[in-house]
């Protein structure tokens, strides 16, 4: 009579099979596979433009300019954040201490405002320089990509946003006035150049729509700028009407360029 084997004994015998050596007498000639980690980055800002030396080499120059303009757009966004998040430093409860250290507290912020004034000058000159280059008689027949026109539209949007933020932030003007009074009392602005720059900053902050007005004045002296501006506006209108945008900021950019461009043309 055969001996009966319980289920537990059978499972135990099966587990013992895992410890049974089964050498195949073959050497291991393959190394263990190494893991690869791939992380795509689509925000290259045209850093790979030099690789395209054939086929579309004619657009390398445009890609180079496009890249530098995108960097200026990012800097403009930083100034927009600075203006939007500005909080008045001259309304703190410890006014006696602030009065004694007004220059120490406000000087870094006023330096930011001074850099902002210089930035908008450089940005307007850069934008008008590109418009002047594209409106040149020998360049009017050249192909201009939609992405490049949209980048110019983003510049217009940046100017409009920075101008409106500057207009609405009274605390910016108040802090600069407080710093100016303290600096004059402490005779920190004794040289004529510092006095002139401070006056220029005061006028820049006091005049509403100073950025867009300066932009319009410099555009009006460029021959044929209306045609290029019309191309930018028409492209933004086409993108808006066909809903060729993803985020609300892109949608609002198209609307602001459309309105500002038509106001300039009229």
UniProtKB/TrEMBL annotation:
Domain called CYRIA/CYRIB Rac1 binding: residue spans: 64-247
GO annotation terms (biological process): regulation of actin filament polymerization
The entry's keywords: Synapse, Synaptosome
Keyword Signal appears in the UniProt entry: no
A Pfam family hit: CYRIA-B_Rac1-bd
Main location: other
GO molecular function: small GTPase binding
Name under which the protein is recorded: Cytoplasmic FMR1 interacting protein 1
């Amino acid at each position: 009579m055969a001996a009966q084997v319980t289920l537990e004994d059978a499972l135990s015998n099966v587990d013992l099979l895992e410890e049974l050596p089964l050498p195949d007498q073959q050497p291991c000639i393959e190394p263990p596979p190494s893991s690869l980690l791939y992380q795509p980055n689509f925000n290259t800002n045209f850093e790979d433009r030099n690789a395209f030396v054939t086929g579309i080499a004619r657009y390398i120059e445009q890609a180079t300019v496009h890249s530098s303009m995108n960097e200026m757009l990012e800097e403009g966004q930083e100034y927009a954040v600075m203006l939007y998040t500005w909080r008045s430093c001259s309304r703190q409860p410890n006014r006696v201490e602030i009065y004694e250290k007004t220059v120490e507290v406000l000087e870094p912020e006023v330096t930011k405002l001074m850099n902002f004034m210089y930035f908008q000058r450089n940005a307007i000159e850069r934008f008008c320089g590109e418009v002047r280059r594209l409106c040149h008689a020998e360049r009017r027949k050249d192909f201009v990509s939609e992405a490049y026109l949209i980048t110019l539209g983003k510049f217009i949007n940046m100017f409009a946003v920075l101008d409106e933020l500057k207009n609405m932030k009274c605390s910016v003007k108040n802090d600069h006035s407080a710093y100016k009074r303290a600096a004059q009392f402490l005779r920190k602005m004794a040289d004529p150049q510092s006095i002139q720059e401070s006056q220029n900053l005061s006028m820049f902050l006091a005049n509403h729509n100073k950025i867009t007005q300066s932009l319009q004045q410099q555009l009006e002296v460029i021959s044929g700028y209306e045609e290029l501006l019309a191309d930018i506006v028409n492209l933004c209108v086409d993108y808006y009407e066909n809903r060729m945008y993803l985020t609300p900021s892109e949608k609002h950019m198209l609307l602001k360029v459309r309105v500002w461009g038509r106001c300039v043309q009229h």
